[in-house]
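Priority: low. Protein: 1-acylglycerol-3-phosphate O-acyltransferase. Input follows.
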Amino acid sequence: MTIAPPAIVIVPLAVFFFISGLIVNSIQAVCFVLIRPLSKSTYRMINKEVAELLWLELVWLVDWWAGVKIELYTDSETFKLMGKAGEHILDLCKEHALLICNHKSDIDWLVGWVLAQRAGCLGSSLAVMKKSSKFLPVGLQQLRDFPRPFWLALFVEGTRFTQAKLLAAQDYASSTGLPVPRNVLIPRTKGFVASVSHMRSFVPAIYDATIAIPRNSPTPTIVRLFRGKSSVVHVHLKRHLMSDLPTTNEDASQWCKDAFVAKDALLDRHITENSFGEHRQDIGRPVKSLLVVTSWGILLILGALKIVQCFSLFSSWKGITFSAISLGVVTVLMQVLIQFSQSERSTPAKVAPSANGKSSSQPRQEKQQ
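Result:
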């Protein structure tokens, strides 16, 4: 049974994230109305910087609050294209990239956010979730003239990895003659194919990321993050040229499936060696997120004191009741978010073997996309 973070932790963090998010979204809305009609490019550049003020809070949660250690394994050339500059800190990334990744834990998307922050493209990073994949073609068209390098992350397994989902995927693979997975789920390739089809002309690379948890580290979860519990995450990153991918949709789909077969073998090796090999790169722990969160904290505390002073919130039972109810609502919403973020509560896999073989099983698999 997972123990939820205590209220003394949840309440201030919940209020902090909620109010800062409200401020950032308000600024974005104003910029959308006033600046975007005049200059789409200027709006995007401003929006990138403003969005980063919010996403840096999540980076702070990983880097400084919980102290999660992310170890990156990739070759030197890929590391440079990500934006290597100086001894530890990364500079602006050098290229647009489509990132595909296995979905191992609750915080895989946060690991991607941390790597994007190191590469200097946190404010222009996007992650496609299951519910938003239906709008993917429309969104991809809008990225064609994006003024800064961006990363688009796809979790093509469509759901987080659990043993129950692995058993379902293994049954499905056995019934359809596919390679039987051991450490990953079977990728659902519609979103990947759509991305490659629309982005081939202006995105030069695919970053193939593989996430693994070393044997001596507990699995990172959102609950552990809020409790300030550290973990270690290994990330292997391999760069593929978009121009090397097959041109037909069917072949691109098969390329993605083959990539996950290779990813499965890589994870087998990681289980044996407890590492991804020799090419470990130092991504450091920049203080930028700490400075931003500290600044947010000072701003919000001063603002709260001013509001309390102006409206005399604690001078009457009505003000005290209103404050207590507001804190309660924000806390409950945060608890719900934490609960639904857990792997065991994610959407169950619906793949299953079919008595009629591949032709009748395939539609059930594709519905998960």
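DSSP finds twelve helices and seven strands in the chain. Residues 9-288 form one domain.
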